[in-house]
């Protein structure tokens, strides 16, 4: 699956922060900050589109609590859940671009059911749309998504 940014660029963004914020520049300082946040029970949500798999271990080490989104167009949501789901909460997994615009309700329901059931195992994941509902998505597909999640999700 293709990446939108190189691992080097991703690490630079993680370490330096969005917008090249230079207040915390070293990985050690970032780890210390993450430890303080985690000890105070503050959740850290990290959003970045594309394939982040090569930097997920670093996100975990930095104390990131939730990684959003897991885009099935860029990463294997089941593989990511199996590999990292016990150490970081995953958000997404259902293809906003690949599944939801589809013309067949059964395909939407089947994929939502598959991701929901796989991600239910052991917790640590919120199986939902990887991105927002796009303009080309039929309303019936959105209803099918919500009904299927409600039927199969463990924590709804």
Spans of at least 5 consecutive residues with low confidence: 13-25
The appropriate CATH architecture is: Alpha-Beta Barrel
- The rough form would be described as elongated
Strands in their spatial order, largest beta sheet: 1-2-3-4
Can you write the helix and strand succession as a string?
HHEHEHEHEH
- Return the domain count: 1
Give the structural class.
alpha/beta
Helix content: 40-55%
CATH class wording: Alpha Beta
Topology:
Blueprint: H1 7-16, H2 27-39, E1 45-47, H3 56-61, E2 66-70, H4 77-84, E3 89-94, H5 105-120, E4 125-129, H6 139-152
Helix pairs in contact: 5-6
Q: Could you give a short description of this structure?
A:
By secondary structure, the chain is of the alpha/beta class. 43% of the residues lie in helices and 12% in strands. It has a single domain (7-152), classed as TIM Barrel.
Tell me what you see in this structure.
The chain has 156 residues and is an alpha/beta fold. The protein has a single domain, classed as TIM Barrel, CATH 3.20.20.210. The protein is 43% helix and 12% strand. It is built from six helices and four strands. The protein has helices spanning 7-16, 27-39, 56-61, 77-84, 105-120, 139-152, and strands spanning 45-47, 66-70, 89-94, 125-129. It has a four-stranded parallel beta sheet, covered by helices on one side. Helix 5 (105-120) runs parallel beside helix 6 (139-152). The relative contact order is 0.13.
């Amino acid at each position: 699956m293709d990446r939108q940014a190189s691992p080097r660029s991703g690490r630079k963004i993680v370490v330096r922060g969005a917008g090249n914020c230079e207040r915390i520049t070293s990985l050690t300082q970032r780890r210390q900050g993450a430890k303080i946040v985690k000890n105070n029970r503050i959740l850290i949500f990290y959003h970045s589109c594309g394939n982040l798999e090569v930097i997920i271990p670093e996100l975990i080490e930095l104390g990131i609590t939730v990684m959003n989104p897991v885009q099935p167009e860029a990463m294997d949501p089941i593989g990511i859940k199996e590999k990292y789901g016990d150490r970081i909460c995953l958000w997404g997994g259902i293809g906003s671009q690949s599944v939801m615009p589809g013309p067949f309700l059964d395909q939407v329901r089947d994929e939502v059911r598959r991701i929901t059931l796989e991600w239910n195992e052991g917790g640590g994941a919120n199986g939902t749309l990887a991105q927002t509902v796009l303009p080309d998505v039929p309303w019936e597909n959105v209803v099918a998504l919500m009904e299927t999640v409600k039927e199969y999700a463990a924590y709804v």
